[in-house]
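hey so i finally got around to running the thing on that chain from the lab meeting. sorry it took forever, my laptop kept dying and i had to restart like 3 times. anyway pasting the input first so we r on the same page abt which one it is
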Amino acid sequence: MLIIGIAGGTGSGKTTVVKNIVCSLPTDSVAIIPQDSYYNHQWDVPENVRKLTNFDHPNAFDWKLFEEQIEALRNGQAIEQPTYSYLTCTRQEATIHVEPKDVIIVEGIMALYDQKLRELMDLKIYVDAAPDERLLRVIQRDIAERGHPLEMLIEKYRNVLKPMHDEFIEPTKQFADIIIPNYGGEKRAVDMVRQYIIGCLSTKDSERNRH
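ok and heres what got predicted. didnt touch it at all, straight out
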């Protein structure tokens, strides 16, 4: 099993990189674990307070559960991955059953933040993009998909996204084995990652066949 962590700021292109890596791998050989699933449950918090949640701060995540479930997958155990709703700003009762796969991709803005999680990873990737490019992507996405007004998004970027990125996300770049520049030069880097994964899977298949 390979566990790969993919981090990067909001709007950096992590999801696109994950899709490009997965598309050339054997069918049903990959499980993607989004960090967004591991926000704290806030069932006991009034809704008006939940709406003020800073989703870009480390304290917003249930790191203990996150660590336990990734470690369980590494040990060959299935997990019940939590689900989270941004509408209610709390965890849902429904879970997603995830079986161990040859490749586990842990993807999220702070996928490389927690030391114990990093220690469980075989490959750590940081997707890098210029601040203005990330801002434009966030604006395009949130206006199109969530109907947020432009003024609100600019205020959110200034007061939350940028300071949180600078303090908590950007520094995790130092832990990455590979930094993928997501501004036109990512194709070659993604191809290298895919070849690395395919090579590791081929080696493990050969070892299994010998035994």
